[in-house]
Every structure is written in C-alpha cells, then in structure tokens.
Amino acid sequence: MAVEDPSTEEKIATITLGGDADADAAVAAAKAAFPDWATTEPEARVAALERLMDIYKSRAQEMAQAISHEMGVPIALAKTAQVGAGAGHLKNTIRTAKGFAFERRLGDHAPNDMILYEPVGVCALITPWNWPMNQVMLKVAPALAAGCTMVLKPAEQAPLSAMLLAEMIDEAGFPPGVFNLVNGDGAGVGSALTAHPDADMVSFTGSTRAGVAISKSAADTVKRVSLELGGKGANIIFADADADADADADADADEKAATRGVRHCFNNSGQSCNAPTRMLIERSIYEQAVETAHSVAEKTEVGPANVEGRQIGPVVSKTQFNKIQFLIKRGFDERARWVAGGLGLPEGLEQGYFVRPTVFADVTPDMTLWKEEVFGPVLVMTPFDTEEEAIALANDTPYGLTNYVQTNYVQTADKARARRVARQLRSGMVEMNGKFSGAGSPFGGMKQSGNGREGGVWGLEEFLEVKAVTCWE
Questions:
Q1: Where is the Aldehyde dehydrogenase domain (predicted)?
Q2: Residue 261 CB contacts under 8 Å (≥ 6 apart), including other chains
C-alpha cells in the first residue's frame, strides 16, 4: 500500500498490509513474552520507559518529519504539539507508574486482605491517523508500564511515525515480543486482532462506527474493550465571555471567546475528535460572533505541510477530502446560512487535499452538519436565549466527548453558573474559558464517544486487572 503525502498527493513510502498469519504471529510473540514481562518489577519497567524517553527526545526531529509527511500536519505543529503530545504522555506515564501502588491493603478493617493490580495480558492497540503519537503513546506507554505485552496496528494512512517508534522501543531494550507492530487495514489485521482468542484486551481510537464493530467482534471472547470514539463538541459562549477574556492575564487582547473557538475548531485542519465544532452563542452577541467567525476563517491560511508558518495543512486523504466536501454541500442544500469557506480547493492550491476553512450559521438540530462529525475545518453556529436552552442544545447529540464553556469567571455568581453548566453537560470532559486539561487528566467520553479513559492513573488502570487475596500475612 502506498503512503501519500496529502500536501502533494505523491507516494512517499510503501508498506505491506498484513494478514491473518501476521496477526497470529504477533499475538503469539506477545503471549510468549507476557509471563516474564508481567512479573518484571515495576521499577524495571519504568527504567525501560525512561530509556525510551531519552531516545524519543533525541529523534524528535525525525518524528516530526514523519508525522508531517504522512498526515499533512504543518511542520511547525508537528514539531511542537504532535511530537510534544507523545513526549508528554510518556513523561506522565512514567510519573504515574512511579507513584502507583500495584499492591495495597484493602483497609484497616481487613488488614490481611491484599489488593493486587496485575496486567490484563496481551493487548491489541488500534490507533488513528489524526494525532499519531498522541494516540499511540496514550496506549503503548501505560500498557508497557502495567506489564502488558501488545500488538499495535497503526492507521494504514499514517504508519511511518509508529514504525519509527518501534525502532526506538527496540533500541530502548524492551524484551523481544513485548511490543509488536503489524501494519494493515481495519478489515484485515484489525478484525483479526479484535476477534483473536489470545488477545485479552482491545484499546481502540477511531470512529464510532468502527468502535461498534469492534465491540461486537470482541464479545465472543469476552475480552476487555476500551474505546475512544467520535465527538461533536459544543462550545457554549455566554454574552459576558469577552469580559472574562479581558480580565484574564493569560489571554491576548484579540483572543476573545469566539476567536479562540474558531481557531480551536480549525486546529489540525479540524481533524480532532474533541474539536469544538458546534458554537452555541447567547443571542445578544450572536451576530457579532458570526462576524468574528467570518473574519477568522477568511484570515486562516491554508498551505503545504513543509512550509514553516501558522497555516493549516491538508486533510489526510482523498477519501477524507471527499467526505468533507459532501458534508459542506449538505450545509448548502439544507439552507444553513453560509458565512465563510465552502466547496473546492482554496485559492492558489491546485493539488493536495486542502479544505477551505468553512463556517455555517443558523444551523439547527435537524441538519446534517449538526449531527455528523465532519473531521475537517468546518464550524457550525447556533444562537440560544437561556442557560437551559444552551445545555439542551449541547446535549442534543449522540456524542459526549468534550464540551466547552466560555463565561465571565471573575464574579462569584458567574462561577456558580459555569460550574452548574459543567455538571449538566453529558460529556467526559468540559473545558472552561480556553484552559486545557492538566497533565494526567483523564481523556475519554460518554455515550457514543466511548467507554474508556486514557491518561494519568486512569489510563494505567485501563491495562490492569484487580485481584483480591485474603490471608496475606
């Protein structure tokens, strides 16, 4: 299979798609390595991860180039956010594992009852193309720290970064069979792994459709399934939000709530499951926000990934480009108010899978763009009149990954409102006033956005079984 550079549509590498025999061989290797790795002292596993961290840092430029070429992210973003996400998750896993009690007493009431946290076993890890090292490291690092062995199937559209990581893991001295990588597509290697009787767990990040299929496939062997799926995040902006931005010393003068929201939606060319793609604005500032969105979209530069700058790059593939074009056309067909962007390539670009940063206003819950995850730089905007209406609109989706609240957080009464809204939003995460979650915060969703958590102690526990032992002493 050819790996394309989405900026040029040119072939940059060729991978071999595995089959059932390759999946079987990888699972067998992981199964054979499991007894020794599972009983390795946690301190030794952490030491191996620390060696991996040193190697990862030393090869960061290679990793940035691989990610930029394979999925089209601009090189500046690849060097910082994309490579940095992998390093950050590895660092946080090391810190978490060092402080984790793999053996602990049940409590003072039962001093001879011991609770043991033991590795789940052989794990099938299936990752997407949009944040390659972010998603790979969120699975591989805690699985290694827990004492699991694994088979990684990276996205076939963007496998180069994962293959580079495999070299690093080998260089770090992990025992043979602990980590295995098999390239392939979902229908082939992916299906073979999720149904494999010797795989004890599947951790998958990707579409809800695929997550449903994986759950059904894994059910026959009753293996653990952890899913991080799609999203359709709502960004609730109250009328006083700009006052809060002005009061916040960390915010630039032009980084008002609407501006932040549009930029966040377009980041990584809109290819983020937690993107705030539905902007809900209090009616008194709605038209002002629409004008802001138009201005930001028009000023958002689009260009090749190899050019230094703050532009957004292409989307990952022709398939993805065509899907986004179809959904933009649906916006026009269903009479949403066009604000910016639209169909076709941006001006000046004649090849590559580039999408015009697009905004539609007056989008209602019956429209396709309200319901479906676009996974491109497309924002929809809707007004609301009351807090209760904003909450109802935000929750009007089968997804529940990340929602956002923008309001004045200086006054005590407004703090209470922000907290009240956050409690009522049906999502695994809520970000307030442009503040990102801290290191080690659990990442995951509710409803059709999935059922697992990644990051920090929660991410480590995903790969651990709990065993209760009586009469320990």
A1: 2-469
A2: 235, 237, 276, 279, 379, 404, 406
What is the rounded average pLDDT of the residues 382-404? 98
Tokens at residue 247, please? 């009061």
Q: Which two tokens stand for residue 80?
A: 């910082």
Domain boundaries, the chain: 2-229+450-469, 234-432
pLDDT averaged over every residue in the chain: 95
The one-letter amino acid code at 450 reads G
Selected from 3.30.420.40, 3.40.50.720, 3.20.20.150, 3.40.309.10, the CATH number assigned to the domain covering 234-432 reads 3.40.309.10
- What's the pLDDT tens digit per position in 199-214? 999 999 999 999 999 9
Note if 228 is an active site residue: yes
Which residue in the list 156, 228, 282, 373 is annotated as catalytic? 228
Is residue 461 part of the annotated active site? The answer reads no
Q: Which of 4, 156, 273, 462 is catalytic?
A: 273
Instruction: Band the pLDDT of 255: cuts 50, 70, 90.
Output: low
Pick the CATH number of 2-229+450-469 from 3.20.20.70, 3.40.50.300, 3.40.605.10, 3.30.1300.10: 3.40.605.10
pLDDT digits (tens, 9 = 90+) for 43-84: 999 999 999 999 999 999 999 999 999 999 999 999 999 999
Contacts for 245 with CB less than 8 Å, ≥ 6 apart: 251, 255, 256, 257, 260, 433, 434
